[in-house]
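Q: Give me a protein?
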Amino acid sequence: MRIAVDVMGGDHAPAAVLTGCLDAVPILGDDHTLVLVGDEQVIRQGMEQAGLADHPQIEIVPTTQVIDMGEGPVAALRSKPDSSIVRLMALGGRKAGDQYCDVVISAGNTGACVAAAQMSMRRLAGVHRPGIAVTMPTFHGPVVVCDVGANPEPRPTHLHQYARMAAVYAEQIIGIDKPRVALLSIGGEETKGNILVKETHQLLKDDGTVNYIGYVEGRDIFNGKATVVITEGFTGNVVLKLAEGLAAGLFKTIASEIAETDPEMAMKFGPVVKNIYRKHDYHEFGGAPLLGANGTCLIMHGSSESRTVVAAIRSAISYIEHRVNDRIIDALDDTSIPQTEGAA
């Protein structure tokens, strides 16, 4: 298995990403190769400092350009053909030949990653549009939310496919038995929601292969009602960022209040608060897969740390071993999803 990582992508790149890659070397199997994409001098220097110079399981694909987080995806891909994102995604395409990689991972510009992945890797058979599936930790267990940024203006059939693909991912990788799939809306009543939501709702109701439970509101994501939540990319991204900010703010507030009220109590509760935070920390889940891509593409959080990279590599290996893409193709291989929008 060949695993490629964009060393230059992310808020803390290249240092944090490179450190994470090198920290992950011990978890590689004998038949695994880690392909580091980015500035060759930076990568070699880091390998030497880590005592991994000329490691037999590490390859380097040198690049000379970097796509910044704030750049427009399409313009950036055209103007920076030797960027780490473009070269990375090309490695995940079937045309890469001997350099082909089974997995590509980046914490870089999400829009550029999605666009480059679709250009180089294309889509799995039957998939209309790929979607990003993120795992959100909650008190009742993990919840898979799809899409969180790849497709902000989807059609009902796109969301229908996300339901099937995300259910496969939740079952195979997260370990959720018979995932309860729900559609995010502004109320639980069938009269609520816009045209997109209502039409998707009907498709899912008529789909006997999905364990569909109906609408959920934003707060239901955290109360255990559903284990897979489907929405369009714009709303999904807002929900994700809001949840991250709220969680971080609450933990800081709780820690501050305890310390101010009773310093001795803060010493006692400190380990408990840290343990709770760890269980709700997105770094522990690594990357979010681009479901539907004809390959395995994991997109990490822009502020990923070295431990995020290790978790992403571990998750990617599991993704391949569980043959998730093959199972997605099987899940979409019937006549209950209209196939007239293949390029839509």
Summary: The two ends are 32 Å apart (CA to CA). The chain has two domains: 1-127+292-333, 134-282. The longest helix spans residues 233-261. DSSP finds eleven helices and eleven strands in the chain.
